[in-house]
């Protein structure tokens, strides 16, 4: 493992470590929190960093470090869940779009084109307002919003793979469409989909935190980074560090995922490996 | 004659696509209430603990929800075509009027962001390309990576902390009518426009850098050098002009992201544009306003895309001939 990390570029290795830490904290975060993250203390409102509260307190006197630590979980859950949903549905739609009957594929790909034309946050806003807020619905909404991106990539990769001799060989030997899809096509379109998945995780984190920032995502008192940034916005003049900490965590995480995404793209695309 | 017919066919086809998109969006916006789980009437009356059946029925008929779905759909579409977007449930005001008030503010913010992004992005890209492989290049390129990754609400907050709280140079948020106080209007535009434009500036810088590098390797540049033309003239008059085509393309492609960014930037800076209208309406479940503002944003978006595609098509015959 160490050797593997050492052989990567330093920025990539650092990003991998950071992301491993983020995921670990998402799982065990509540155990690490020094204080109860929901405990309101009116006498300790909006305090700066101190030996007791390393990162200070928020507008209800709650410990910021504890809230940051447990705020990772909803963000990570939403991002991962949304990516899985988007990848599953998108890949399915994309393969059908390339392989299915003409009329069906025309319908799918035109809808995908229209949806792709709109900024994700706009689509998410439309759905979120009329839905119960919370982790599960955010997952579903963000997952649906990013489905067309996967469908577009799966479709174009499938079309490419279908030209290859081995697919034609399978077909001429009388393989069933299901066998062709699972044995010949899917394994060969995985790498662009994996790159898309890393990009989507980063985008989903940003979208979730954007919605939470607007007050339309994770519901208080449950914290999430975006929501903390949104709340801290009102206390900028009193306690600017309240905003800086979650902003820093969020920016670092997204940057790390993007760096890994770039690395994966280079790694999986032999043309760029030089 | 043939060329003219080709151009005409291209324009007609693009117009038809845009109108189809508008129609699909209008249908989608109409169907929000039906696709979404939950009764919009109950959502609206949600503040009352248990509304009586009479209240629900009254609200339903006030909103026209007691009509058959198809009738509602047709009347919604005809209203939209006549620019009648209905009235706000909560405020009672005309949605069309509010949209018309807020639209120019969003446009102004977006336009200012594009101008700022170009003013920063192009020189940075050129500087990075001319200093390729040096420390300057590495520093500038890393800055663009950060610029693309940093979310607008984080950048906005940092700018507010620096320029309004620490230095006190610019107001932290709010809007001023240009007719009432023009200098203050522009002072309040600076931070939101810069925040919105920063990511675009980074994209422009990257594209300018790679495009300049490619052009500088071309034969005609070598020929100009061999002819003894000054390096400054080669760069500013010949290389930049040829390198600018992909840069203009990236600006066109990034307009969508820019529109998405306005949602957060307007909220961050209390800028009373279309996105603020939408977010407020979503929070208060005032769905005629949601429908109206989404439709307006989508229409704006479709027309910008249409304009970009038409301009490219008219400039470059190859795009026109491509089957779309």
CATH superfamily of chain A: MetI-like
Integer tally of domains of chain A = 1
Helical fraction of chain A: over 70%
Which two chains form the greatest contact, residue counts included? A-B, 38 and 46 residues
Largest sheet of chain A: none
Termini separation of chain A (Å)?
24 Å
**DSSP summary: helix tally of chain A:** 10
Average pLDDT rating of chain B? 81
* Beta strand count of chain A: 0
Number of helices of chain B: 13
Set out the fold topology.
The complex is a heterodimer of chains A (274) and B (324).
Chain A: H1 2-7, H2 10-32, H3 64-99, H4 102-116, H5 120-128, H6 135-162, H7 165-172, H8 177-213, H9 225-232, H10 240-268
Chain B: H1 2-35, H2 40-44, H3 53-62, H4 69-81, H5 95-130, H6 135-149, H7 152-166, H8 182-216, H9 219-227, H10 231-268, H11 274-284, H12 287-315, H13 317-321
Helix pairs in contact in B: 1-12, 5-6, 5-8, 5-10, 5-12, 6-8, 7-8, 7-10, 8-10, 10-11, 10-12, 11-12
GO biological process, one term (chain A): transmembrane transport
Subcellular location (chain A): Cell membrane
InterPro entries (chain A): BP-dependent_transpt_permease, MetI-like, MetI-like_sf
């Amino acid at each position: 493992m160490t050797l593997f990390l050492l052989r990567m570029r330093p920025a990539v290795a650092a990003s991998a470590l950071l992301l491993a830490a983020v995921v670990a904290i998402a799982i065990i975060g509540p155990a690490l929190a020094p204080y109860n993250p929901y405990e309101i203390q009116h006498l300790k409102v909006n305090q700066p960093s101190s030996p007791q509260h390393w990162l200070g307190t928020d507008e209800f006197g709650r410990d910021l470090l504890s809230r940051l630590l447990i705020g990772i979980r909803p963000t990570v859950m939403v991002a991962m869940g949304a990516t899985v949903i988007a990848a599953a549905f998108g890949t399915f739609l994309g393969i059908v779009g390339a392989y299915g009957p003409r009329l069906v594929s025309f319908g799918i790909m035109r809808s995908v084109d229209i949806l792709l034309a709109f900024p994700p946050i706009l689509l998410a806003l439309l759905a979120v307002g009329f839905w119960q807020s919370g982790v599960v619905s955010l997952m579903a909404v963000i997952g649906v919003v990013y489905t067309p991106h996967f469908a577009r990539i799966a479709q174009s990769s499938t079309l490419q793979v279908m030209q290859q001799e081995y697919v034609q060989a399978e077909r001429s030997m009388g393989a069933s469409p299901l066998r062709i899809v699972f044995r010949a096509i899917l394994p060969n379109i995985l790498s662009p989909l994996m790159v898309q998945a890393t990009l989507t995780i980063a985008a989903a984190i940003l979208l979730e935190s954007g919605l939470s920032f607007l007050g339309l995502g994770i519901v208080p008192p449950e914290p999430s980074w975006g929501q903390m940034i949104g709340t801290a916005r009102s206390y900028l003049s009193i306690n600017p560090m309240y905003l800086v900490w979650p902003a820093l965590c969020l920016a670092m995480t997204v940057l790390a995922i993007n760096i890994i995404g770039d690395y994966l793209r280079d790694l999986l695309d032999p043309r760029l490996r030089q | 004659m043939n060329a003219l017919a080709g151009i005409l066919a291209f324009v007609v086809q693009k117009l038809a696509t845009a109108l189809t998109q508008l129609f699909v969006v209008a249908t989608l916006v109409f169907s929000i209430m039906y696709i979404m789980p939950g009764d919009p009437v109950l959502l609206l009356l949600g503040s009352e603990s248990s509304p009586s059946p009479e209240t629900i029925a009254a609200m339903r008929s006030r909103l026209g929800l007691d009509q058959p779905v198809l009738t509602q759909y047709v009347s919604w579409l005809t209203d939209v075509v006549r620019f009648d977007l209905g009235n706000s449930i909560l405020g009672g005001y005309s949605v069309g009027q509010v949209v018309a008030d807020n639209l120019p503010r969003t446009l102004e913010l977006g336009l200012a962001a594009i101008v700022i992004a170009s003013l920063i992005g192009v020189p940075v890209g050129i500087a990075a390309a001319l200093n390729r492989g040096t420390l300057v290049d590495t520093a500038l390129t890393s800055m663009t990576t950060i610029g693309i990754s940093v979310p607008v609400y984080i950048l906005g907050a940092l700018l507010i902390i620096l320029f309004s709280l620490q230095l006190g140079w610019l107001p932290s948020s709010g809007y001023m009518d240009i007719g009432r106080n023009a200098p203050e209007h522009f002072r309040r535009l600076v931070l939101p426009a810069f925040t919105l434009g920063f990511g675009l500036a980074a994209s422009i810088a990257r594209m300018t850098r790679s495009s300049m590098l490619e052009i500088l390797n071309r034969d005609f540049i070598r020929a100009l050098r061999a002819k003894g033309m000054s390096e400054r003239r080669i760069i500013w008059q010949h290389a930049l002009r040829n390198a600018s085509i992909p840069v203009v393309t990236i600006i066109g492609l990034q307009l969508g992201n820019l529109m998405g960014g306005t949602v957060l930037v307007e909220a961050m800076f209390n800028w009373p544009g279309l996105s603020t209208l939408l977010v407020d309406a979503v929070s208060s479940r005032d769905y005629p306003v949601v429908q109206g503002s989404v439709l307006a944003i989508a229409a704006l978006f479709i027309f910008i895309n249409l304009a970009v595609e038409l301009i490219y098509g008219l400039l470059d015959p190859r795009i026109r001939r491509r089957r779309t």
